[in-house]
Amino acid sequence: MTIQPQRIRILKDREPRTGGAYVLYWMQAAKRVHGNHALEYAIDRANELDLPLACVFGMIDAFPDGNARHYHFMVEGLAEVEADLAKRHVTFHGALGSPDEVALALSKKAALVVCDRGYLRIEKAWRRQLTEAIECPLHQVETEVVVPVETASPKHEYAARTLRPKIHRLWDEFLQPLSHRRVRRHERADVPASRLDLSDPAKLVASMKVDPEIGAVRRFRGGQSQARKRLKAFLGRSFATYGADRNKPEAAAASHMSPYLHFGQIGSLEIALAVREAKTGGDEDKASYLEELIVRRELAINHVFYEERYDDYACVPDWCRKTLGEHAGDKREHVYSEKQLAAGETHDPYWNAAMREMRETGFMHNQLRMYWGKKIVEWSKSPEAAFRTALRLNNRYFLDGRDANSFTNVAWLFGLHDRPWGSRPVFGSIRYLGPATLKKFDADAYVATVEKLAKAEARD
């Protein structure tokens, strides 16, 4: 199928370089070979110019808050990318270094360069820096969302209710399958051999300057094939009761797609189309899942794209900071340090279990994430301290941390995309989640589930 023109932006408008040796695809956000609009667009351009296609990936070992857990999962996925590209006759070159600089080096012999799109500050900076330095055309293709972010809305949206109708008006246009192109020129592109040995993820990560304290987990293995395997299992088993069970952590009704979406190992379009065609689950189940996958996820991307301060307490709406400030001096029954919270050393066994799941497996059910975060607000000395603590823990332990959803979810704890509620101590008119939250599911069964998961992680 034709790639929608709204996905394409010309960052450097020039004629293709005469005598270019290849077309270059700079892979950064979309770390997958299938369901990748940027890659398919690059294949189209290579075929038009009758040139081979090369794919370059630059891996920086100083990504903000990145650690061995994140890098191990990413490298597992990249090993699959390299193998899948070879099957499609695309030459892969990986190297350690700033992604824009690695791409710039290979652009010197390229007729044209294609890149995917990222939304975080550092990702936008890499593309801006490459645009300024490159001497051949640079085309950006957006593939990490169903509806391109600026097409959905030209501004920062106030809440899901303001973005939802805009997305719904457009999503049928963009919920279209992406056809699989064939590369016409099968010879190896004239690029240096890859300098990343992806055959042993643990060894590669150990050789890098990344925080080794938070290590890889058994619960999740990286790669598009793993994402597809989980998605197939979810749609074949849990999806039949998704609408009823999605907020019950003990029910195992989650799809576990968030780590794979975060690392670009599967696209939201592929998931959405699979959900629409699923033989299990009714209309309500499908609508509920697509609301989270498209509306809520793309609301989060809207937030980080339009709000430059997304990782700072200043991003929280004025009314929220005002009411929290008015109650900053309220007495707190419990106050815990970040170290105590990270260790799960609070008086609340259910909160401790949620922290343990996060710390030891890299994941936490969304229902618990809300409760977990609201308690950090309640148990911190100030809202500013709570914001910093929640974000650091989130980004450090979650496989899907450092993500648009993560930054937005932390800000939601303080009122972003929400409305005022009845006033109470500490929270003011910000939404509060208390013991009643734990009555909505079998909290003791959840604790038992976490115990089993932790034991599985501890096996030799």
TrEMBL record:
One Pfam family this sequence matches: DNA_photolyase
EC number: 4.1.99.3
UniProt-listed GO biological process terms: photoreactive repair
Database matches in InterPro entries: Crypto/Photolyase_FAD-like_sf, Crypto/Photolyase_N_sf, DNA_photolyase_N, Photolyase_Class-2, Rossmann-like_a/b/a_fold
Photolyase/cryptochrome alpha/beta domain mapped to chain residues: 21-149
Source species, domain of life: Bacteria
GO MF annotation terms: deoxyribodipyrimidine photo-lyase activity; DNA binding
Cofactor names: FAD; (6R)-5,10-methylene-5,6,7,8-tetrahydrofolate
Keywords: DNA damage, DNA repair, DNA-binding, FAD, Flavoprotein, Lyase
Swiss-Prot/TrEMBL catalytic activity: cyclobutadipyrimidine (in DNA) = 2 pyrimidine residues (in DNA)
Keyword Iron: no
EC main group: lyase
The family this protein is said to belong to: Belongs to the DNA photolyase class-2 family.
Name of the protein this chain belongs to: Deoxyribodipyrimidine photo-lyase
